[in-house]
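User: Could you check the structure of this?
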Amino acid sequence: MYTPHAYPVALLMMLVSLLCWGSWANTEKIDRTRRFELYYWDYMWGIVACALLFGLTLGRTNSATAASFFHNLSSASMRSLAEAFAGGMIFNLGNLLLVAAISVAGMAVAFPLGAGLALVIGAVLNYVISPVGNRLLLFGGILLVSAAIASNAMAYHRLSKSAKAGTKGIVLSLLCGVVIGLFYPFVAKALTGENHLGPYTVYFVFALGALVSNLPLNYAFMRRPVSGSPLSLRDYFRGGRAVHIWGFLGGLIWGTGTICSFVAAYAPMVGPATSFSLGEGNTLISAVWGVFVWKEFRGANRQVKRLLALMFALFVLGLVSISLAPVFG
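Assistant: Sure, the predicted structure tokens are below.
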């Protein structure tokens, strides 16, 4: 099982996590004719495929050791298995709410509000479970990110022409933030204690929990959508193979970022609070996509542009502070 033994390597993995977590949702926006509920089935298959890919490669670099993928999976305690599975179920609900928020409000709003709130909640809970890193730098960075979230919310409020659509997008974003903020502590607990899971087996069990929960949850979103008419399972099979590629690719991208986050969190010099917090800086990456690629703030006046510039500056300062927390811990 591969794990980093030096902080620069762990930092690189966290930066990959930040980039992947902030970029996967672009695959949902490429085909604008395909509803997010249909996209999400393929996204989930990508997550499971990623768990198998990394588990059977980096997860068993030496198949004879106790930490190797299959040995670790068979010897893990029921507590660790249940925590990882529950973490996947909680994540899936939060991520479905996030994709719904993106479909209503766009990436430049859904990610900063949802993932930003998740950062604050998850970082505090993860630090309680495993207090690693300099508290001043870690929570100072979180405070700066929180200020960036507030700047983004004000910018969107001043730009939005429709109060109803704006309210729905913000509510969905905040709900997803609360739920996503609760999943990582379950993963952190599963990585500790007697007969605990390693990062690759944690992600595999986590992915199974997400897949199982997706069957009723996504079907419920299909039948009672946040926008548009209800869908049936028959709609998923319309359109040919090409329409399924982007969702599967999105799952692979997100899964790669998650593996990197879990592996970095497992490293003693990092811990889950820092790994999760830096990965949740994906709000910065997604805001860059939303503002500069998808033009979600097209037509913004000078005041809105100032708020967006302040948001980016606060995000960068906050992420630098969080990344330095393990160095001066």
